């Protein structure tokens, strides 16, 4: 007889899912360089350098300096690697004073803990600083496992990343859900690895009218702190099998409706 899967683990992306990463990063970068129009460039340069780390061609400490060096020289500034390292340390100090959680995070983590599921943080970002961020924001005790792309040499949406997390948690992918702000990297990647894939569309890209721009949504404040859906156009259909939420406050209801045994003790 068919029975709904039992939910044993929930994986959560960190940046822009738990932590208001983009808004903080944008503000910090603008404060350091005195202009606010370079965030997209910064993200592109970062993606290029993170890819080299994942490929094993660069370590993280070196990546941060080289990323800042590439960014600053791209702005037309004449800087050497020492200048870039100094810029990077000022940027980090400012960031570390500025991180904040989205308001829906703690209630959601408390509900998940009370429901008795294991929790994993699954991030494509680098090494120890992700753990420092979780610790600084009081999130460490919630998580049974923290999976960091830079440490394990694979990254979302590679199914191997999700499979390794499930192995660590001792659950089958069908017994796990992953929630993240990037449609392809997080939700589609998780779905393809056999987990429940949940896209946290904080900016409301999914519900927006086709042709509507980020700026239009930002003007009413709704997308001010949220990343966009990466490769998603407003109004575009969401891939089959992907669930969409606009806030983590909606996660318990989704889990209860899709995984009816959440919170129900397993028979002995
Ligand atoms: Mg993210």
TrEMBL record:
A biological process term (GO) from this entry = small molecule metabolic process
Keywords in UniProt for this one? Hydrolase, Magnesium
Q: Does the keyword Signal apply?
A: no
| Residue numbers spanned by region Disordered | 211-238
Q: Cofactors per UniProt?
A: Mg(2+)
A Pfam family it matches: Hydrolase
As one GO molecular function, the record gives: hydrolase activity
The record's annotation in Gene3D superfamilies points to:
HAD superfamily/HAD-like (3.40.50.1000), Haloacid dehalogenase hydrolase-like domain (1.20.120.710)
Q: InterPro entries given for it?
A: HAD-like_hydrolase (IPR051400), HAD-like_sf (IPR036412), HAD-SF_hydro_IA (IPR006439), HAD_sf (IPR023214)
Protein name, UniProt field: Putative hydrolase of the HAD superfamily
Q: Organism, per UniProt?
A: Prauserella rugosa
What lineage does UniProt assign to this protein's organism? Bacteria, Bacillati, Actinomycetota, Actinomycetes, Pseudonocardiales
